[in-house]
Amino acid sequence: MNQHTSFAKIDAARTGFPLPAGVFAERVVSVTHYTDRLFSFRITRPQSFRFRSGEFVMIGLPNAEKPVFRAYSIASPSWDDELEFFSIKVPDGPLTQHLQKIQPGDTVLMRPKPTGTLVLDALRPGRRLYMIATGTGIAPFASLIRDPETFEKFEEVVLTNTCRDVAELAYGDQLFQDLCEDPLIGELVAGKVTYHATTTREASPRMGRITTLIENGQLFADLGCEPFDPATDRVMICGSMAMLQEVKALLEARGFEEGSNSRPADFVIERAFVG
Ligand code: A2P
User: Are 254 and 229 in contact (CB under 8 A)?
Assistant: First the structure.
């Protein structure tokens, strides 16, 4: 932690705010803006920090006596040297109105304990793993889909990405392209992973809410497979609260049970952070 303690001192001197006790103060390495609503950033990773792919941490900025912290899914895989996050920009969001302005070299605060239910441990063994994402809900899947353990546990992985318009799909599109071209993981995932992207407000080759595409069977027709079956399929869902509730109801109607860390089952859900 020595290197992080020194960041902490620099930051306290610059901002005038003492750092809260027990948080990591990490340096922003890079920032990518996709649209006026979405951006990603990478920060240094504390040497002692361990997490399971799919978990989230609490993130804040050193800009107040008592900084605002919000839950962020870690988008990088657990083997990465840095930590990546994918965020919405809310004009008056208590955290994101400031976070969207970060630059390389700035400091981001991170609480040390990762947690969450979108983890492989919360699912029973299965054959095909669906990762259902809307908006920034793709972040935990960006971690899981780059984790070799996902492909040790499942023969097939389907990542769905639904956004309002084409530009918002860019993070997921790039993720899939990089995954396929990765010299190490690319070989492992070849022929095992399918990416299914749709828009809801702008014309694109594939359109529609994921809930509609599940209900009318279009998703399965596109994939060339049978509809959800609890005997073979496992599902992870991340996005807006309304989407989570609707997909959860669709799964439960088909006999799927919700899992947790203490009681693995057929599907798990996590709300994507907003604000
Ligand atoms: P829509 O454009 O029809 O609202 P957001 O950017 O607001 O988080 O939304 C991300 C994506 O999730 C959008 O494509 C949006 O579709 C979709 N979405 C929003 N609510 C639901 C829902 N209840 N069920 C399925 N998809 C939803």
Answer: yes
